[in-house]
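F.,

This is the one I mentioned.
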């Protein structure tokens, strides 16, 4: 799986990391059972969600029964809030948002076990614009989407991009850092081969500013090989920022979206 980072004004394409976020394919033995937590806290006011499930036998791949009855809280310097179970395995908090520069600690209590994770919401880097251009891939020219932003020079930044075509999320998720682009104006080409872009399609790009631990999670997931974790040839799972052996991640991140029509 490849994605390319084009730095303006240079005309050199740099390889970056892409990973699949729609399905977390857990590598376990037939007798293992683990808790899987996906915690998301954004800077956009609304419903924040933490989803808890569990793994089953490896033969039942991609089946994750919801975990009910957990006690879920998120704490910061301003206090502790409780997430309520609104659907089986889904714990939510309405009418709230996170703030950049704040460290948030998620605590999940389930039976006699406690799982914790801390994530610091980064400062938001502005997504200036997106556009569509042609990219030569072998003997073909394919329509690709690029995201433009100015990486701040005074901070280490990590980014996660999601793309939707006519409301359907493509399989690739593009996760990069600013090792090659610190302080520069960046044209990040989001090369994907899941959905062929055609005239009249509506494309939406979501840009997430994520912290280092969450970046490491997606980076490790991208290293699984093939087209992402679903086609991994390795038995390892990505490094989680959650304690006590839980799988998954807890992320406090900023989010922006822009859309464009394919001409």
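My design for it:
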């Amino acid at each position: 799986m490849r994605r390319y980072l084009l730095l303006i004004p240079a005309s050199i394409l740099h390889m970056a990391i892409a990973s699949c976020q729609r399905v977390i394919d857990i590598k376990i033995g037939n007798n293992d059972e683990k808790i899987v937590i996906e915690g998301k806290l954004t800077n956009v006011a609304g419903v924040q969600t933490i989803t808890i499930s569990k793994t089953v036998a490896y033969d039942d791949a991609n089946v994750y029964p919801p975990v009910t009855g957990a006690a879920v809280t998120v704490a910061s310097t301003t206090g502790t809030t409780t997430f309520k179970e609104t659907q089986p395995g889904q714990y939510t908090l309405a009418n709230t948002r996170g703030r950049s520069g704040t460290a948030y600690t998620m605590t999940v209590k389930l039976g006699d076990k406690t799982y914790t994770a801390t994530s610091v919401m980064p400062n938001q880097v502005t997504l200036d614009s997106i556009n569509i251009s042609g990219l030569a891939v072998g003997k073909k020219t394919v329509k690709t989407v690029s995201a433009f932003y100015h990486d701040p020079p005074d901070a280490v930044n990590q980014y996660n991009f999601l793309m939707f075509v006519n409301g359907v999320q493509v399989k690739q998720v593009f996760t990069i850092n600013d090792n090659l682009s610190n302080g520069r104006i960046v044209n990040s080409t989001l090369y994907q081969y899941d959905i062929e872009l055609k005239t009249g399609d509506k494309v939406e790009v979501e840009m997430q500013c994520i912290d280092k631990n969450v970046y490491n999670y997606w980076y490790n997931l991208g290293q699984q090989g093939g087209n992402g974790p679903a086609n991994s040839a390795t038995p390892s799972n990505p490094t989680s920022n959650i304690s006590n052996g839980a799988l998954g991640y807890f992320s406090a991140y900023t989010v922006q979206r822009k859309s464009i029509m394919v001409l």
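The chain is about 5% helix and 50% strand.

Talk soon.
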